[in-house]
Amino acid sequence: MFEHPPAISSREYMISKLAYRIQELIYGGVDEVTQKKIQEAAKKIKSPKDSINQKFHPMVGSKIIKEYKGKSIEILVVDNGFSYAGEIYKSLSSIATKITGAKWNGLKFFGVAGA
Hints:
- Helix content is about 40%, strand content about 20%.
- The protein is α+β, with helices and mostly antiparallel strands.
- It folds into two domains: about 10-45, no CATH class; about 65-110, no CATH class.
- It has a four-stranded antiparallel β-sheet with strand order 1-2-3-4, with helices on one face.
């Protein structure tokens, strides 16, 4: 199925690679124009080290859910910040502080953005 033995140790990943290859053989692969676009986009992707100091920018409408002291806390990402308990906050840190009564890094408290 491949030009060389795939270096894959995961059975699930191998199944998905084989499924993709079968579809590629039946329907045709990615055309050259699309392949070039993919390669250009890949060049623009930064490594995880590059993104360490970047701000957390979740998509509007995303929900952040955390269990804290037996309660489910739900945060909704809105245009101008984060909505929690009917109020809008500019940062997750301010919500974490409100919930716990102590100063927190919001990214760490909610377990988001690799913090």
